[in-house]
Amino acid sequence: MKIMFNTPHPPPAPPVERTARIRFSGLCAGYPGRPVLHQVSAEIAELTTTVLIGPNGSGKSTLLGVLAGVIKPTSGDLLRTGDRAPAFVPQRGAVGDTLPLTVRQTVEMGRWGERGPWRRLTARDHATVDATLDRLGIGDLASRQLGELSGGQRQRALIAQGLAQESDLLLLDEPTTGLDPEARERIGALLTALVADGVTVVQATHDLEVARAADACLLLQDGRLAGQGPPEQVLTTSALTRVWQGL
Predict the structure, then answer these.
(1) Which of 53, 57, 62, 108 is the most buried (most CB within 10 A)?
(2) Nearest by Cα to 79 from 41, 39, 35, 28
């Protein structure tokens, strides 16, 4: 008689606890005569991709601007850990098509935080720019004007400018909006690789497909936090119906 023994399975590994890269509490912010964010509190873990998701007008871009330091909150507390300032990549539409900038010049602007706009770039700066252009696959476009590029190429140039800052915190506003599926997939793969390399990524989007692929979501509605946590817990049918029903 053959006796079969069941091989015991090892217990599942406990979830990795990550340090908060950004922590904010009671944030209020907006523009003259137009408050946008109302008492928003959350944490963003390091070495993750976090998505700010919600309908247009929900406060995604304003919150991203506060996290980047380009919008000053009217009240509340904001703590960013780490030694380097965040790198902020605005929407493509915020960068004029008529600006007489080449792709290389655009990426070189990412080094201004180190040198200032009027000082010559060092050999190390040029090496950083070259490596960033190569990583984004746009080295062959270095001499092209921004206005001549396709949407996906232009977005990669703007992301390259952010990466040239060598920050471990990358903030992006709608990086895949208006792009074709191939360009969206390419940028999504790049952001995943950046997290593996030690970068914390935060992006604002209204694309549910992008949000479901993230590590964490902050769901916004009318400038307030309507949910936070893993996408499968936050982006439920009932929550999405509730948030988008009020439009």
Answers:
(1) 53
(2) 41
Residue (of 61, 78, 74) closest to 29 by Cα position: 74
C-alpha to C-alpha distance for 130 and 57, rounded to whole angstroms: 38
CA distance 41 to 201: 18
DSSP secondary structure string for all residues of 117-158: TTSPP-HHHHHHHHHHHHHTT-GGGTTSBGGGS-HHHHHHHH
Angle (nearest 5°) at CA 183 between 180 and 189 = 140
First to last CA, the chain: 70
- Using DSSP's 3-state secondary structure scheme, residue 61 falls into helix
C-alpha separations of 219 from 55, 58, 59, 74, 215 in Å: 9, 9, 10, 21, 13
The answer, as to whether pTM is greater than 0.70, is yes
Query: pLDDT for 94-141, tens place per residue?
Result: 565 667 899 999 999 999 877 666 778 999 999 999 999 999 999 999
Which residues sit opposite 205 in a β-bridge? 53
In degrees and rounded to multiples of 5, residue 45 shows phi and psi of: -75, 150
Residues 149-176 have pLDDT tens digits of: 888 898 899 999 999 999 999 999 999 8
Cα dihedral: 210, 215, 41, 77 (round 10): -100
By CB atoms closer than 10 A (0-12, 13-18, 19+), residue 109 is middle
- Which residue from 67, 77, 102, 36 is spatially nearest to 173, judged by alpha carbons? 67
How far apart CA 213 and CA 51 sit, in angstroms, is: 9
